[in-house]
Design brief:
six-stranded mixed β-sheet, six-stranded parallel β-sheet, Ferritin-like_SF, 10 helices, TRASH domain-containing protein, elongated, alpha/beta, RNR-like
Length: 342
């Protein structure tokens, strides 16, 4: 994860580090411009987590629901975006899909622009073994956007030059067992029979998306028997893929690496789709409703200003809008085709 954590204040810095250590995506929202009167100032920041929690300060009730919504969209797309809240809403420029302008309806007026940058954990390929296949995977995986962790049966050198910042992380088996890995982790165990069982046992203790074993079917059966004898349940053993890789008729170590990496990429992309679909299902009913007075998007689950009218529930960004609506509901519901549509 290319961290912007060093630019955050202490509480946000701690939260960013915790999220990154757990492999959880988040977004950083930063106020980049303002026109008074608004409560936020240039440089104010907040973190929005993948479950919609907003920590920090980027403005009050008019800003927070919009920022939360746009941050979640940025996390799912992996693309940054600029959000402008203003009393003057120009037409969207052609091709300007990463910039959004929302009407600012707080009685105080003002304008604020907020840059939202998603911090999505880089998928990790954990390649286990001291074999040419592992070396081939270590060379290919970064090109496909994966971070690489190399696991060897021998201990890493206790001293000597540190690996390059963009080089692979190196662990021994003890380090593998102690390391934390998130769901966007992909294990390839290719130790040629030297320590397959230990590596697989460690991998099965993580929420890794993919665990592949490079071995003949006969040796794979023997490995599974050892793991059963250690008490690992069948449901866990079923997570192990063997043979690893897509069937492309690979013959050389490099071709086998291509077949494995292709399967890993396919599984990674499938996981992204499932995560997005799961988020939609978990959301249930729409999370945002339109304030019928001002047109502001209001977060339903946390809305403080709510009114019932004609058997319908309406949500408002502030008590001022709610008061205006209750004075003359039909004024704001007539046609429901303008900025006051619910």
């Amino acid at each position: 994860m290319n961290s912007s954590a060093s630019l955050l204040g202490d509480p946000l810095l701690r939260l960013a580090r915790e999220l990154e250590a757990a492999g959880e995506p988040y977004a950083v929202a930063t106020v980049v411009s303002r026109r008074p009167p608004v409560s936020a100032h240039v440089g104010d920041k907040a973190i929005v987590t993948a479950d919609g929690r907003l920590v920090g300060w980027i403005g009050g009730s008019c800003s927070q629901p919009v920022v939360r919504r746009e941050a979640l969209a940025a996390i799912h797309s992996g693309r940054p975006r600029l959000v402008r809240l203003s009393t003057d809403v120009p037409a969207q420029a052609p091709g300007d899909e990463d910039a959004t302008t929302v009407v600012m309806t707080c009685p105080s007026g003002g304008e604020v622009a907020i840059y939202i940058e998603p911090r999505v954990a880089q998928p990790q390929l954990v390649a286990v073994g001291d074999t040419p296949l592992v070396q081939a995977l270590a060379q290919m995986a970064p090109v496909a956007g994966f971070g690489v962790v190399l696991v060897s049966g021998t201990s890493p050198p206790a001293a000597g030059p540190a690996p390059a910042e963009d080089g692979p992380r190196r662990l021994d088996l003890a380090g593998l067992a102690a390391a934390r890995f998130g769901p966007r982790t992909f294990f390839v165990v290719a130790s040629a029979g030297h320590y397959d069982e230990d590596a697989l046992a460690a991998a099965l203790g993580t929420p890794a998306r993919y665990i592949g074993l490079v071995a003949s079917r006969r040796r794979a059966r023997a490995v599974l028997e050892v793991l059963r004898a250690r008490g690992l349940p069948e449901a866990e053993l079923a997570r192990i893929r063997n043979p690893a890789g897509l069937d492309i008729g690979a013959a050389t170590q490099e071709e086998i690496a291509v077949s494995i990496l292709a399967e890993v990429v396919a599984e990674y992309r499938r996981g992204l789709w499932e995560e997005a679909a799961g988020a939609v299902r978990a959301a249930g009913p729409p999370q945002f409703a339109r304030d019928p007075v001002c047109g502001m998007d209001v977060e339903v689950t946390t809305a403080r200003h709510v009114a019932e009218h004609a058997g319908r529930t309406f949500y408002f960004c502030c008590p001022h809008c709610r008061h205006r609506f209750l004075q003359d509901p039909e004024r704001y519901l007539a046609g429901e085709d303008g900025p006051g549509s619910a």
